[in-house]
Structure formats: C-alpha cells, structure tokens
Design brief:
UDP-n-acetylglucosamine1-carboxyvinyl-transferase, Chain, four-stranded mixed β-sheet, alpha/beta, 2 domains, 30% helix, 12 helices
C-alpha cells in the first residue's frame, strides 16, 4: 500500500455479530426468515454451513437476501465445521447440544488453539456428554441439553453466555437461572437479547448482568414468518472511520447510532482524540484534524484495539488503552502482535498488565509487516500505512476475508493506492 488520501461515500459492511446471531435465531425460532443485507464474510459462511447441517434450509434470493426455513434443530450431519469463528463455535455449540445425536465440532486456523475448557466444565452440569482434545478442538457432544441453575465465568468471553441463553430459550427453560461472574462485553449480551426478542424467542430477565432468569410463565411461540435486517458493522466500520480521521474526508453510511454493538464506542474514542466528525441518522461524516493522544477503556470492546492503535499512532502524544488483557485469545495474541508489527513502523507500544500505551506523533515508517493471519491486524496495518513515509507491504493480507472480505476493494474505491499480489508458495 502507498501513502494515500481518501475521499468519498462508503457503505459499512454487514455486521457479523448481527448476522451470526440471526442465523442461530432463525434455526431455533423455526418457520421462514428473510435476512436482508446478509454478510458474506468467512465467519458468516461458516455459521450458515452449520445451521444447514443442523436442519435449516438456506436459499439466496434474487435481491441478495437470504431465505432460511427451519423446523428447529434436526441434524442430518454427524460433523460440523465452524471455520475460524470464535463467536460461531461458542454460540452454536450449545445449540448443537440440543440434539440427542453425537456430533463432532471442528474448526480451522487459529480456532484450533483457542481454549474450549468452558464446555468441558459446564456441559456435564446440563446433562450433555462432551469430549475435547485437552480443552481444544475438536469437540464431540451429545445432548439433549437440560436447562438447570448454573453459574459460569464470563471473564474470557460473553459469547459462551450468548449460546447458553439461546439454547435455554429453545429448550423451554422454566424457573431456572444462569448466573454469571465477571461478565465482559455486556453490550454483546444486549445484542443477543435484542435478536432473541426480534425472533420471538423467550427472553430471560436480565438481573444486572449477574443473573439471567427464565420464569415459568415464558412460553415458546409458534413458528412464523419474519424479516430481519442485518445492521451495519461497527467493528469493520471502525477502520473506515479511523481512515477518515487520518486521511479523509469520508462519509460512512449504514451505521445505527443506537446500535447495541459494543464497537459503537469507537465514536467516544474518536471524540477523545479530537477527530472531526458529525453523526446523522444514516451516515457519519469524518475528516482529518489535529489528532491528540487519548485515554480509552476498551475492556467491553476489545475488537477496537487494532483500529485504536492505528488511530493512536497518528495522534500527537501518548494514548492509554485499557483492556489489553482480553487480547490473548484472539486470532493472534493481539497485544503482542500489535506491539511487534507497529514497532516495524517506528511506533513504540508499551504493555503493562491490562494497559497498553501507544506513543504516537512520529512519522509512520514504511515497512513490511505480517498480519499473523489476523484479519484485524491486517486492516490496522493498512489504515496506518495511509500516513506512512513510503510504501507498506502487508503479508497474509487475505486474512481480512474472515470478517470484511471487501475491505481492500472499499479502500481502493475511496482512493487508496494499493496492489494485491498473489505470492507463490
């Protein structure tokens, strides 16, 4: 990528957080669901593949929408593959365990190294037999899941809770609670509960995010037809917004300012960095200003770390980010990866426990960097390169396909000077 100035109007990508939850809810709620503005990232495709294996029919429509028809969990496969999707495996595994059939759950890439001890610890309490590879994939599970009073640890990820909430609702949970310690990323649970409500699934009482109670009065509704509009993705759009703050002006459309997505908090970070932007009901306009170092707590939105580091690198002074402890079990160990790859660009990043400090303000140096097969690292490096003093090479840049496959096409559309090269093996 070459240093570039950007301008134009761009549509935010579809939210995979919203899309994947909609896939799960469509499977559980039954009947016919039309999903408008569906995502087509690798994670989205993996979720569609899993719900298809669990009995749903998925049909693309001429207008780009998807039609999903389901009679609930009715697996025809004995093996499913969640690709590299952390949300996919954590959310869909409890749904798979609603069946009384033994099913093997596999994954790919970095997902093979992510801890799955949660299922080994919790599933036996719910009447589910489970075998794992020493707390890693593959998993072999057999239900049916029996909703019971349990207590779980929510410090690693809220995605485990999302799967249990949906599974309990589908299993007709009555008079039972899921109690949670140390819940992180609460906004993602808000999104889960909102999707459950839109699909007519029983929604538990949220007791200050410490307990989710399913009262005995909840009845599961009859299956019906519904339409669900996938939101614009604040996670992917955060890179576009930072790009606008560094090298714009840009207009980003399709983002809901009232969204439950945790990464909507990028607006607070941009404001703290003195970025120039305005928010309207259907678009955000953003342009370069004199950016300054800022303080931001990303504990509940750890996926914002990569774009925030790209932003901080272009700010004058030191930026302090909290929540770095949540980055170890991503597609890469993101705190270490960001420190290493941005060091190649001349950006000094200090790590001290849960705190990351980015010393910005200097010229971004041209370098060859490595995504470490992490989609958000690839995008962060690309955004940082817009203000570099020369061309930047990003190895394994195709990692963006996991969440935002159109990223480099969109960057070119906005004026970025880049060339995609296929390297021979």
């Amino acid at each position: 990528m070459q240093p570039s100035k950007l301008t134009g109007i761009i549509q935010a990508p579809a939210s995979k957080s919203s899309m994947q939850r909609a896939c799960a809810a469509a499977l559980l709620a039954g009947g016919e669901t039309i999903i408008r503005n569906p995502g087509h990232s690798n994670d989205d495709k993996a979720s569609l593949s899993v719900i298809s294996a669990l009995g749903a029919s998925v049909e693309p429509l001429p207008d780009g929408s998807l039609k999903i028809i389901s009679n609930g969990i009715d697996p025809f496969a004995t093996k499913v593959n969640c690709g590299e999707s952390g949300l996919g495996i954590r959310m869909l595994t409890p749904l798979i365990a609603l069946s009384d059939r033994e099913i093997r759950i596999e994954g790919e890439g970095s997902l093979l190294n992510r801890p799955m001890d949660f299922f080994d610890e919790v599933f036996p309490q719910l009447g589910i037999t489970v075998r794992s590879n020493a707390g890693k994939l593959p998993l072999i599970v057999r239900g049916p899941l029996q909703p019971r009073d349990i207590e779980i640890d929510g410090s690693l990820s809220s995605q485990f809770l999302t799967g249990l909430l949906m599974a309990y609702a589908a299993a007709g949970a009555s008079g039972v609670s899921i109690r949670v310690r140390n819940l992180k990323s609460r906004p993602y649970i808000d999104l889960t509960l909102r999707v459950m409500e839109e699909f007519g699934l029983p929604v538990p009482e949220n007791r200050d995010y410490r307990e989710f109670f399913f009262p005995s009065t909840i009845k599961r509704p009859w299956a019906r037809s519904r339409t669900y509009n996938v939101e614009g993705d604040w996670s992917g759009a955060s890179f576009l917004l930072v790009a606008g703050a560094i090298a714009g002006p840009l207009v980003v459309k399709g983002l809901d300012p009232l969204s439950a997505q945790a990464d909507r908090a990028i607006l607070h970070a941009l404001e703290s960095a003195n970025a120039g932007f305005s928010v309207n009901s259907d678009q955000i306009e953003i342009q370069p200003t004199d950016l300054k170092g800022f303080h931001f707590d990303a504990t509940d939105c750890p996926d914002l770390f990569p774009p925030l580091v790209a932003l901080a690198a272009s700010c004058h002074g030191t930026t302090t980010l909290k929540g770095a402890g949540r980055l170890a079990h991503k597609e890469s160990d993101r705190a270490i990866t960001l420190q290493s790859e941005f060091a190649k660009m001349g950006v000094d990043i200090e790590l001290q426990g849960d705190i990351m400090r980015v010393h910005g303000g200097g010229r971004i140096k041209a370098a060859t960097v490595q995504s470490r097969h992490d989609h958000r690292i690839a995008m962060a490096c690309a955004i940082a390169s817009l203000g570099a003093d020369g061309p930047m090479a990003i190895e394994n840049a195709e990692a963006v396909d996991k969440s935002y496959p159109d990223f480099f096409d969109d960057m070119q559309w906005l004026g970025a000077k880049l060339k995609i090269m296929q390297l021979s093996e």
